[in-house]
Specification:
single chain; Alpha-Beta Plaits; 2 domains; 4 strands; 23% strand; ACT-like_dom_sf; UPF0735 ACT domain-containing protein Desaci_1833
Length: 148
C-alpha cells in the first residue's frame, strides 16, 4: 500500500528497478485483457507472484494517476502566429477541458504558457495528450508542473 499520506512522485521509467517495471507491465496486461489471471500475467513478464503482490498497490501508469484530475502543464512555444491555437485545438480534439491559460510576453522568439485542464472527460490518456502536444510544430518543451 502507498504511504499513509498518499505521497506520489513522477519518476522516469529509466531509473526504476526491473521488478517495479514488470509489475506495471503485468497490471497493464490484466487491464487490457491480454492476461486473465495474475499467474498468467506474471509468467508473461517474468516476475514472481510475491514481487507482484509487493508492488501492485503502489505502481500506476501516469495516465491512471492523473485521470479525472486537474493537470497543469508548462509549455515553451515559438512566437509564431497560430501555435497556441493549435495547442488548444488539440486539447479540444480529445475533449480536454481547459480551465486556465496564462501566457507571458514573448521574449527572444519564445513564449511561456501554462495551461490547467480537467482530464475527466478526455477521450485519451494524459500521457497521449503530452505526446500529441509535443508533436505540434512550434512546441519546444512541455512539462507537467502540477496535478490535483
Amino acid at each position: 500500500m502507498v504511504g499513509k499520506s498518499n505521497d506520489f512522485l513522477i519518476v522516469s521509467k529509466d531509473i526504476l528497478p526491473e521488478a517495479i517495471l514488470k509489475t506495471a507491465k503485468a497490471k497493464e496486461l490484466l487491464v487490457k485483457g491480454e492476461a486473465y489471471t495474475i499467474n498468467d500475467a506474471v509468467e508473461r513478464v517474468g516476475l514472481s507472484r510475491s514481487a507482484y503482490y509487493k508492488y501492485k498497490d503502489g505502481v500506476f501508469p501516469f495516465y491512471e494517476a492523473s485521470r479525472e484530475k486537474i493537470l497543469t502543464i508548462s509549455l515553451i512555444l515559438e512566437n509564431k502566429a497560430g501555435i497556441l491555437s493549435h495547442v488548444l485545438n488539440f486539447i479540444a480534439s480529445i475533449k480536454g477541458n481547459v480551465l486556465t491559460i496564462n501566457q507571458g510576453i514573448p521574449l527572444q522568439g519564445i513564449a511561456n504558457v501554462s495551461i490547467s485542464l480537467e482530464t475527466a472527460g478526455m477521450d485519451d490518456t494524459p500521457e497521449n495528450l503530452l505526446n500529441g502536444l509535443g508533436n505540434i510544430s512550434g512546441v519546444r518543451k512541455i512539462e507537467v508542473i502540477g496535478q490535483t
